[in-house]
Amino acid sequence: MGYKEEYRSKLVTADEAVKAVKSGDWIEYGAFAGQVVELDKALAKRKDELFDVKIRGTSRMYAPEVVNVDPLNAHFTYNSTHVGAAERILGDKGLCWHLPVLYHEQPRYYRDHIRTNVLFLTVPAMDDRGYFNFGPQVSHAMALCETADTIILEVNPNMPRCLGGFQEAVHISKVSMITEANWALPELPPIVPSETDQKIASLIMERLEDGDCLQLGIGGMPNAVGALIAESDLKDLGIHTEMFVDSFVDMIEAGRVTGARKNIDKYKVVCTFALGGKKTYDYVDNNPRVAFYPVDYTNDPFVVAKNDKVVAINNCVEVDILGQVCSESSGTRQISGTGGQLDFTYGAYRSKGGRAFICMSSTYLKKGAPMSRIKSTLTPGAVVTVPRTMVHYLVTENGVAELKGRTLWERAEAVISIAHPDFRDQLIKEAEEIGAWRRSNKR
Questions:
Q1: Dihedral (C-alpha) 366, 371, 377, 382: value to the nearest 10 degrees?
Q2: Out of 28, 242, 328, 430, which one is annotated catalytic?
Q3: Per-residue pLDDT tens over the stretch 20-35
Q4: Using CA atoms, how far apart are residues 54 and 99, in angstroms rounded to an integer?
Q5: Distance (Å, rounded) from C-alpha 20 to C-alpha 151?
Q6: pLDDT at 356
Q7: pLDDT higher than threshold 80 for residue 76
Q8: What distance lies between CA 147 and its chain's CA centroid?
Q9: Predicted local distance difference test score (pLDDT) of residue 217
């Protein structure tokens, strides 16, 4: 049987495909821009005949239909390994549960610890050799395919074909059923950097050099860095990142990125998933310059460190005066995930000449009143995303604090120095109360 004939033999409607799901099963929905739509709708129709079906996704950009039809979690329970904006709202209602992951380890979780009964995965059209590319969600997709009891693909011609790397495609011989769909990829809305973002970005730009190898997180500040890089005269930058975003396209098209000084994947732009606007999806489609790898390669700190001068730039929620970083919760409220921040903070510092920047505005508004993001101790319940021992640079609009090699009192002094001036005296008082302030410290 040829591949086209095998395709037709496995092609079913979404309603037919979801009959593979049984009560008590664990179902995977895929990740990021590639999470299934039609299979989700079809599974939701079976609500009344199914119980205790557990679903895992990653940063879904809108509520899955199985949640919409079952607001009491009587039939379906939705879980996410990295809480996105829509999932955050669901979590506030008790409709999304977080599965904490250290992102570079996630493929191993599936191979060694997690049971998957049915995998739903969106892919581009099959190629002439019977392979389905994973599109912009290579991440942990191969580990899912290796371990799931049943693989059901949702073929969507709008998905870009993202070249490897390795482990970026699955063969039709491994697939149980195929459905077809035609929906537009979800796009991140444009993020306009604030004045504070621009100031932080300018402080980081002062510390960038020709030949640096970049990782950028998501948000206004990394976007601002990307825009400034595109307008700069920096040369021969490289990219080794987890997430490929719009600002990378701007840098590449401006001629700032060549990858010529990378030690591994020379000349290649390396990532594990893409999430952005049409500009991003069009750029990565069938583009041999961009290599998509599984996350246990891109985010492994020891792989990251093989390149020289790796620069990791990420955001956080709050920091304490000793340097503990929370980037994923507001108190006990889960608002994000560890993601690759810890991976790249560690990997960048291990890199020869590497630098890891964790950034934040010094204040935020709560009920109209300014509050400091720098605290004497983290908010009760806050998750420590990056331990104080791993933090290299902290950056606010007020300056840059380097924490490597500093004692507790030196850390307190450095961190308080980049807090908003209105909060510094109170932070010093609190530092004294917890024994983190010397009499000779600068004020």
A1: 30
A2: 242
A3: 999 999 999 999 998 9
A4: 12
A5: 10
A6: 98
A7: yes
A8: 23
A9: 83
Exposed (0-12), middle (13-18) or buried (19+): which is 235, by Cβ within 10 Å? Answer: middle
- Residue 189 CB contacts under 8 Å (≥ 6 apart), including other chains: none
Which tokens is 262 given? 């990378």
Asked whether residue 274 carries a pLDDT value surpassing 90, the answer given is yes
* 294 touches 146 (CB < 8 A): no
What b-and-e string marks burial along 22-49, b requiring 16 or more CB atoms within 10 Å of the CB?
eeebbbbbbbbbbbbbbbbbbbbebbee
Q: What are phi and psi of 179, to 5 degrees?
A: -120, 165
pTM strictly above 0.85 = yes
CATH number of 195-433: 3.40.1080.20
Query: Model confidence over 336-379: pLDDT tens digits?
Result: 999 999 999 999 999 999 999 999 999 999 999 999 999 999 99
Q: How far is CA 221 from the centre of its chain?
A: 15
What is the DSSP annotation of 344-398? HHHHHHHSTT-EEEEE--SEEEETTEEEESEESSPPTT---SB-TTT--EEEETT
What single string gives the DSSP state of each residue in 205-266? HTT--TT-EEEE-SSHHHHHHHHHHHHS---SBEEE-SEE-HHHHHHHHTT-B--TT-SSST
Query: Domain residue spans in the chain?
Result: 3-180, 195-433
How buried is 112 (Cβ within 10 angstroms: 0-12 exposed, 13-18 middle, 19+ buried)?
A: exposed
Cα distance between residue 9 and residue 12, in whole Å = 8
Answer yes or no: same fold for 3-180 and 195-433: yes
Judge contact between 30 and 59, C-beta under 8 A: no
For the domain 3-180, what is the CATH superfamily, name and number? Glutaconate Coenzyme A-transferase (3.40.1080.10)
Query: Which is nearest to 293 in space by CA: 167, 136, 146?
Result: 167
Residue 65 is a catalytic residue: no
**Which DSSP category does 181 fall into?**
-
Percent of the chain with pLDDT over 70: 100
Q: Rounded to a whole number, what is the largest CA-CA distance in the chain?
A: 81
